[in-house]
């Protein structure tokens, strides 16, 4: 069984957490215990328009309710603002952005989503956008590889076609802030994360982030991380969404649902041989090779 140093729980406080988030937290914590890794709580709060105090409070309430431990990171909402907010690491992101720009990897693009759609594109650039204003431009990666290599759990290197939708990845948004992809790579390298547990919906994001990390010596350690993409909890065939208000944990708590019932549901969802009622039991029953999808 491989050994890992650190994994992370990295939610964005942009909505009330749902049952799918809870399942992912439980799996991540169990993977950490199974492999002797520590857990980092990383709050992705760069997007001030979407991140709200109520959602941040809900994050800590949910972790407490589920009895999910973590070893590093903020201990309270106030601690996020005081010591761990991504806004306190903007200089690190700007350093990487400057290095990417100086190395010639980036180009400015002011295309809107409608511009791309009207041109029959789902990513990239129309080539006409800078007739508008360079001040409104995002910065994107100029080139993409044909294939990308990823280290999938437990220890399997595989090569996949680079996703078309991730061509010309945005690394700096039009509002001047670094993108989620850039901040995520920089943070994982900075904190020494070597096991990344995330939903299957982020598979293409993982491949794109691996390409981004390969461009600079300071971020290449990201490529040594092992990825486990777990299946998604869905409703009517659609993945659960915080913004859509699917199955919020806060409502489940208000109906006197006990945490053991969530662990039992998570056990059935991940195909455990029996129903766990707490994290220790879930870890003991877990065989992640049974559902590692990619």
Briefly say what this structure is.
The chain is of the alpha/beta class. The chain is built from 10 helices and 11 strands. It has a domain at 6-87 and 192-290: 3-Layer(aba) Sandwich (Rossmann fold).
Topology:
Layout: E1 6-9, H1 19-35, E2 38-41, H2 53-66, H3 77-84, H4 90-102, E3 106-109, H5 113-118, E4 138-141, E5 147-152, E6 156-161, E7 170-172, H6 180-191, E8 195-199, H7 203-214, E9 226-230, E10 234-235, E11 238-239, H8 249-254, H9 259-269, H10 279-285
Parallel strand pairs: 1-2, 8-9
Antiparallel strand pairs: 3-4, 4-7, 5-6, 10-11
GO biological process, one term: glutamyl-tRNA aminoacylation
Protein name: Glutamyl-Q-tRNA synthetase
Keywords: Aminoacyl-tRNA synthetase, ATP-binding, Ligase, Metal-binding, Nucleotide-binding, Protein biosynthesis, Zinc
The biggest sheet, with number of strands, parallel, antiparallel or mixed sense and barrel status, is: 3 strands, antiparallel
Q: What value does the average pLDDT take? A: 90
The shape is: globular
Can you say what the CATH homologous superfamily of one domain is?
HUPs
Give me the strand/helix succession. Answer: EHEHHHEHEEEEHEHEEEHHH
Strand order within the widest sheet?
3-4-7
Derived from helix and strand composition plus strand pairing, the structural class reads alpha/beta
Low-confidence parts lasting 5 or more residues at pLDDT below 50? Answer: none
> In percent terms, what proportion of residues is strand?
15-25%
- Number of H/I helices: 10
Briefly, what CATH class of one domain? Alpha Beta
Gyration radius over CA: 20 Å
Oligomeric grouping of the chains: single chain
Keywords: Aminoacyl-tRNA synthetase, ATP-binding, Ligase, Metal-binding, Nucleotide-binding, Protein biosynthesis, Zinc
GO molecular function, one term: ATP binding
InterPro entries: aa-tRNA-synth_I_CS, Glu/Gln-tRNA-synth, Glu/Gln-tRNA-synth_Ib_cat-dom, GluQ/Sye, Rossmann-like_a/b/a_fold
Organism: Lunatimonas lonarensis
């Amino acid at each position: 069984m491989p050994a890992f140093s650190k994994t992370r729980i990295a939610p964005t406080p942009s909505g009330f957490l749902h049952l799918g988030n809870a399942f992912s937290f439980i799996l991540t914590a169990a993977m950490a215990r199974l492999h002797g890794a520590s857990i980092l709580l990383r709050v992705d709060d760069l997007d001030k328009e979407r991140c709200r105090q109520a959602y941040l409070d809900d994050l800590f309430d949910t972790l407490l309710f589920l009895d999910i431990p973590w070893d590093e990171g903020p201990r309270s909402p106030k601690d996020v603002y005081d010591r761990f907010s991504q806004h306190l690491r903007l200089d690190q992101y700007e350093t990487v952005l400057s290095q990417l720009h100086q190395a010639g990897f980036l180009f400015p693009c002011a295309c809107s989503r409608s511009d791309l759609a009207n041109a029959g594109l789902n990513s990239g650039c129309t080539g006409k956008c800078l007739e508008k204003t360079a001040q409104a431009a995002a910065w994107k990666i100029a080139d993409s590889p044909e294939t990308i290599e990823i280290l999938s759990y437990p220890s399997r290197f595989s090569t996949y076609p680079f996703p078309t939708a991730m061509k010309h990845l945005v690394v700096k948004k039009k509002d001047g802030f670094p993108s989620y992809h850039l901040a995520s790579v920089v943070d994982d390298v900075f904190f020494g994360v070597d096991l990344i547990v995330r939903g299957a919906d982020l598979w293409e994001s993982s491949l794109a982030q691996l390409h981004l990390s390969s461009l600079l010596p300071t971020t290449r350690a990201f490529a040594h991380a092992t990825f486990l993409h777990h299946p998604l909890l869905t409703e009517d065939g659609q993945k659960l969404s915080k913004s859509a208000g699917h199955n919020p944990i806060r409502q489940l708590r208000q109906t006197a649902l006990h945490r053991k019932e969530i662990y039992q549901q998570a056990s059935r969802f991940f195909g455990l041989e029996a129903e766990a009622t707490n994290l220790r039991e879930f870890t003991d029953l877990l065989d992640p090779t049974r559902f590692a999808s990619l």
